[in-house]
């Protein structure tokens, strides 16, 4: 089924285009805000060819896979005139839907989801930049060892790749500022401007004037360029959104366009320099220190334990929607450590689920459960490629115990990956599709970790799940 037909089927099962208030996408899911949830045929929606799973949350989430999710959203916008955001107006049904969606989750989950929404649109660029930087580093390593000639051609390729990688990662604060402004209701240009402010060289000069700069150890300065990182940018843009609205209310309309941005940014610049950047710098340093103890410990016992636990509990975190809170930690690691060690460990969770699914498939074959065999046959390739939702909602979660045994098995892969100090240059889909995201020296260890997680998930599930339990699932 092509994407056009897939969207047509989805719209039909959702109760028609008039029942769709808004739609957006993340990496693998099409997310829709609905006028009336009761008229949606969830069972038929799950049965649509190309739909890998359906998650009923404050927005209905339809799993269609990476790449396809964005294409389906584009079709909804162009062919069905569906907006990406709920419109504000006199339509009481739309306002009711917006309020209803806000009431379904705790403040913590809503906050984590907002943070996730800041970074989700950046993931394609993060992936591309990570791959470009990875291959640029590989060329440099090969040249240093004499395996690759130091010619103008290879120098040009290395410079081009590092240029592409640096053009995004070097200005991550600006992109974060723009997206944070969009989520918090501030002017996006001002959000980007505030992000850019944090990485300007004048910050260090101002720090020197006020005695806040440590010339001996610049990173220990109270204030320096980049201090506070993206945490400071997000906090700053949130405050920016509040100040901008208050300033706008007190300014005559005829002066709004000139006075509001000037006054807002002047106030925010002072707040960023003297309060937000220094304080968020302390917070960022604490987080980096904690992450270093957890995921970069020199003690192998700590590495094994932390790797096992992190990989084992990640699937329940996804189910509860708490995984959005990990995205800023990825970004903090990337900023401060030049790579992400947390992502490869958590990616083992999906691999453990693949192993569990294989064990269940063999038991389904033994007990002649043809329906379950068919479900696993369709979902397993997606799981291997890093799309875990079909296996979660079609296999392991309905059975109950395999959802737990998958995590217990994944922990072995997580322990190995942590012990080997596997580092990624970016984050994105897991599974074997994440291999190019790993830094050159980590690719093999990451693949071995996947295999260990496959085996772990298979073995634990095989011994803890009885044949009768699999036979009863219809």
From TrEMBL:
<feature type="transmembrane region" description="Helical">
    <location>
        <begin position="342"/>
        <end position="362"/>
    </location>
</feature>
<dbReference type="InterPro" id="IPR050558">
    <property type="entry name" value="PTS_Sugar-Specific_Components"/>
</dbReference>
<keyword id="KW-1003">Cell membrane</keyword>
<keyword id="KW-0808">Transferase</keyword>
<keyword id="KW-0598">Phosphotransferase system</keyword>
<dbReference type="GO" id="GO:0008982">
    <property type="term" value="F:protein-N(PI)-phosphohistidine-sugar phosphotransferase activity"/>
</dbReference>
<keyword id="KW-0812">Transmembrane</keyword>
<dbReference type="InterPro" id="IPR018113">
    <property type="entry name" value="PTrfase_EIIB_Cys"/>
</dbReference>
<feature type="transmembrane region" description="Helical">
    <location>
        <begin position="255"/>
        <end position="281"/>
    </location>
</feature>
<feature type="transmembrane region" description="Helical">
    <location>
        <begin position="222"/>
        <end position="243"/>
    </location>
</feature>
<protein>
    <submittedName>
        <fullName>PTS system IIB component (Glc family) /PTS system IIC component (Glc family)</fullName>
    </submittedName>
</protein>
<dbReference type="InterPro" id="IPR036878">
    <property type="entry name" value="Glu_permease_IIB"/>
</dbReference>
<feature type="active site" description="Phosphocysteine intermediate; for EIIB activity">
    <location>
        <position position="26"/>
    </location>
</feature>
<dbReference type="InterPro" id="IPR001996">
    <property type="entry name" value="PTS_IIB_1"/>
</dbReference>
<keyword id="KW-1133">Transmembrane helix</keyword>
<feature type="domain" description="PTS EIIC type-1">
    <location>
        <begin position="113"/>
        <end position="474"/>
    </location>
</feature>
<dbReference type="Pfam" id="PF00367">
    <property type="entry name" value="PTS_EIIB"/>
</dbReference>
<dbReference type="InterPro" id="IPR003352">
    <property type="entry name" value="PTS_EIIC"/>
</dbReference>
<dbReference type="Pfam" id="PF02378">
    <property type="entry name" value="PTS_EIIC"/>
</dbReference>
<feature type="domain" description="PTS EIIB type-1">
    <location>
        <begin position="4"/>
        <end position="86"/>
    </location>
</feature>
<feature type="transmembrane region" description="Helical">
    <location>
        <begin position="443"/>
        <end position="465"/>
    </location>
</feature>
<feature type="transmembrane region" description="Helical">
    <location>
        <begin position="374"/>
        <end position="396"/>
    </location>
</feature>
<dbReference type="InterPro" id="IPR013013">
    <property type="entry name" value="PTS_EIIC_1"/>
</dbReference>
<dbReference type="GO" id="GO:0016301">
    <property type="term" value="F:kinase activity"/>
</dbReference>
<feature type="transmembrane region" description="Helical">
    <location>
        <begin position="114"/>
        <end position="136"/>
    </location>
</feature>
<keyword id="KW-0418">Kinase</keyword>
<feature type="transmembrane region" description="Helical">
    <location>
        <begin position="190"/>
        <end position="210"/>
    </location>
</feature>
<dbReference type="GO" id="GO:0090588">
    <property type="term" value="F:protein-phosphocysteine-N-acetylmuramate phosphotransferase system transporter activity"/>
</dbReference>
<feature type="transmembrane region" description="Helical">
    <location>
        <begin position="301"/>
        <end position="322"/>
    </location>
</feature>
<feature type="transmembrane region" description="Helical">
    <location>
        <begin position="156"/>
        <end position="178"/>
    </location>
</feature>
<feature type="transmembrane region" description="Helical">
    <location>
        <begin position="403"/>
        <end position="423"/>
    </location>
</feature>
<keyword id="KW-0762">Sugar transport</keyword>
<dbReference type="GO" id="GO:0009401">
    <property type="term" value="P:phosphoenolpyruvate-dependent sugar phosphotransferase system"/>
</dbReference>
<dbReference type="GO" id="GO:0005886">
    <property type="term" value="C:plasma membrane"/>
</dbReference>
<keyword id="KW-0472">Membrane</keyword>
<keyword id="KW-0813">Transport</keyword>
């Amino acid at each position: 089924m092509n994407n056009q037909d897939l969207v047509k089927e989805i719209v039909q099962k959702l109760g028609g285009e008039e029942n769709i208030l808004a739609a957006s996408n993340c990496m693998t899911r099409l997310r829709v805000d609905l006028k009336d949830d009761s008229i949606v045929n969830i069972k038929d929606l799950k049965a649509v060819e190309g739909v890998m799973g359906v998650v009923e949350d404050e927005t209905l989430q339809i799993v269609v896979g990476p790449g396809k999710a964005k294409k389906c959203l584009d079709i909804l916008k162009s062919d069905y005139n569906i907006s990406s955001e709920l419109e504000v107006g006199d339509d009481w049904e739309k306002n009711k839907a917006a309020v209803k969606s806000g009431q379904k989750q705790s403040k913590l989950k809503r906050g984590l989801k907002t943070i996730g929404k800041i970074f989700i649109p950046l993931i394609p660029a993060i992936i591309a930049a990570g791959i470009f930087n990875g291959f640029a580093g590989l060329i440099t390593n090969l040249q240093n060892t004499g395996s690759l000639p130091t010619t103008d051609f290879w120098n040009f390729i290395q410079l081009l790749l590092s240029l592409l990688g640096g053009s995004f990662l070097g200005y991550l604060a600006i992109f974060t500022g723009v997206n944070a402004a969009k989520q918090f209701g501030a002017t996006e240009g001002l959000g980007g401007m505030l992000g850019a402010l944090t990485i300007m060289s004048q910050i260090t000069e101002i720090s020197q004037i006020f005695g806040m700069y440590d010339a001996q150890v610049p990173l220990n300065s109270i204030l320096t360029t980049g201090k506070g990182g993206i945490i400071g940018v997000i906090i700053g843009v949130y405050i920016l959104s509040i100040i901008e609205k208050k300033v706008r209310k007190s300014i005559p309309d005829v002066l709004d366009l000139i006075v509001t941005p000037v006054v807002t940014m002047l106030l925010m610049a002072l707040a960023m320099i003297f309060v937000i950047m220094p304080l968020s710098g302390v917070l960022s340093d604490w987080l980096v220190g904690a992450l270093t103890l957890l995921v970069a410990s020199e003690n192998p016992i700590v590495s094994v334990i932390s790797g096992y636990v992190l990989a084992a509990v990640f699937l329940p975190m996804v189910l509860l929607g708490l995984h959005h809170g990990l995205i800023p930690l990825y970004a903090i690691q990337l900023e401060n450590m030049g790579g992400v060690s947390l992502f490869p460990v958590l990616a083992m969770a999906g691999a453990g689920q693949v192993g569990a699914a294989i064990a269940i498939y063999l038991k389904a074959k033994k007990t002649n459960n043809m329906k379950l065999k068919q479900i696993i046959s369709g979902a397993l390739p997606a799981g291997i490629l890093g799309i875990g939702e079909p296996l979660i909602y079609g296999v392991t979660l309905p059975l109950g115990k395999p959802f737990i045994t998958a995590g217990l098995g994944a922990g072995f892969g997580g322990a190995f990956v942590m012990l080997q100090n596997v580092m990624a240059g970016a984050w994105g889909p897991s599974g074997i599709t994440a291999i190019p995201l790993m830094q050159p020296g980590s690719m093999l260890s990451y693949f071995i970790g996947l295999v260990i997680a496959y085996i772990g998930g298979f073995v634990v599930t095989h011994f803890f799940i009885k044949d009768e339990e699999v036979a009863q699932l219809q």
